[in-house]
Amino acid sequence: MSYKRILIIQTAFPGDLILTTPLIRTAKEKYPDSELHILVIPQTQELLKNNPHIKGMIVYAKKGGNGLGFWQAVKKLKSMQFDLALIPHRSFRSGLLAKLANCKRRVGFKNSAGRIFLTDRVEYRLDQHEMVRNLSLLGFEGAQPEPVLAELFPGKEEYSKVEAFLEKGNAKIGDDLVCIAPGSVWATKRWLPERFAQVGELLMKKEQVKVVLIGSGDDYRLAEEIASMMAVRPINACGKLNLLESAALISKAKLVISNDSAPTHMAVAMRTPVITIFGSTVPEFGFYPYGESNVIIQKQLYCRPCGIHGLKRCPEGHFRCMKEISAEEVFLAAEKILHARKVQAR
Question: Considering only Cβ atoms within 10 Å of each terminal Cβ, which end of the chain, N or C, has fewer?
């Protein structure tokens, strides 16, 4: 089969969009003569800047922001006459949008809330990584695609912004940088601030690296709290760089240390080793850092997982999943990765 125009619908969080980039690349490789467009939300659109596989982006402001409203999006999509819609986002609204837009073939998951609107339904396998699950949408016409890593494409503009920002913190591209991402929307996915501070201090003292705290503007106060606990102040980049600029920064780091959140997948996309700390969620959900050079740190407890996305507070009241992960344990994992990178660089 050939398709003149293909739509991918991914209106979820930044990490979800990053894990959709292998689908974007592989869809273009499978259908090289097709125009590939993607529907995203305003908060994530910058992640796809410079992506060479995409013909265009449609920005759907489902929760406000600069973009199209629901019916505006329907009208726009309808006018573009899509032959095929690939829908990794399993929401009711995503399926409905594809149906109302008259996309001729609509491929999504069997457990999608909007499955009634699909023409082709693919098994959502819980034993697979999310990136592999997304790629399985292309298996509706024959063999399953081979796994490929996520990818982002920061350009000269993004790297120039990072360079200027680092200079303000008495650092530069080329320094031994370690990025620490302490934030998460969910409290039970956040490791303890004092532990992040302890790891940062150990890294600066024993490995002579410069620590950069990364995240959104919502993480700024948390990062300042962490910085206040450290003898040598780290660079606080929270809210100072956009998503693609953060990816550019990560690409120049030796290591990323993150909770189970978007910076994990950003690190994988930029081929930077990452240590991911799991609390209330588990790698078995399929959102672990894909690749051999990455490290997962977690504690096996009777109460894990206690939620798919994380929670506002520990339902057991003890928060052992995070409290039992020591700063020393994370530092030793970081030290091992940094030493291995030094050996490789010789």
Answer: C
